[in-house]
Predict the structure.
Amino acid sequence: MNALDSAAAVPALTPRDYKSPVKPIWCPGCGDFGVLSAITIAFATLGLRPEEVAVISGIGCSSRIPAYLNAYGFHGVHGRALALATGLKVARPELTVLVASGDGDGFSIGGNHFLHACRRNVDLTYVVMDNRVYGMTKGQPSPTTEPDWDSALSPGGTGLRPFNPLVIALASGANFVARGFSGDPRGTADLIVQAVRNPGFSFVEVISPCITFRPDQLAWKRAVRPAPVAPTDDPARAARRLMSDDGLNTGVLYSGTRRPYAPPRPSSLRPVKTLQQEFAL
Ligand SMILES: Cc1ncc(C[n+]2csc(CCOP(=O)(O)OP(=O)(O)O)c2C)c(N)n1
Ligand code: SF4
């Protein structure tokens, strides 16, 4: 039985209830539509009310997602979504905080925050829509772009070894690591449900084609397949598996038991005015 079936008894809201009235401006056929659906299915499955959820993003096509959801949201600055989300979760631990990013946003300018969010293990769910390109800024190679991807902006390919986000998440201390595919919204929703339920920092890479700058990624639909291995709680074993992975195996790879970082809340909060006076120059 998967997480979607086991939660079927909490049907208070439907996925449609988590969609905002804002119409996505993504290119028709963009993989991110599937991720939006997956997130709404996951929230409905978890039985969370919109006011119990905050979705935080950076900048990029993928980072537009908070605007399309009926929940608290913050469209932040490029690469800083995890820093913002960490502060929010520590200050308001009762909220379920989901962070949404792209591979450029999350692994290039936001790479440092990614390492330390894994290490800190605050209870966040980090969904990265990985299309192996900078979509919003017209198709530059990103940290996950294949070295031989030949394009107008990278003639002959970059020749650079791509970043392996799942291995890096494991090595840095993430407590849950999974990969989904945007063409399978229900399967991806199931991963997000498990990620939210797993305490600590959960990382879900969702491979999500950019049909405008990477039409070659349409081939992913026939190439993705469920990982032939069961999840493990041994990070070294999971990392070894990933080192020979072609990036198209989906499912939960690692589910750990590290205790999340959750500092005690102060017994009283001082008014902002008092703080302003203390910090006044
Ligand atoms: C500090 C800063 N640097 C650069 C940019 C320009 N910029 C906006 S979106 C983006 C790339 C986004 O790519 P990715 O995160 O892969 O998301 P996608 O658009 O592919 O979903 C860049 C470089 C910016 N907005 N702010
Ligand atoms: S440019 Fe690519 S990532 Fe951006 S909306 Fe279009 S298809 Fe999606």
The chain has ten helices and eight strands. Residues 59-62, 78, 102-105, 129, 131, 133-137, 142, 210 surround thiamine diphosphate (ligand 1) (CB under 6 Å).
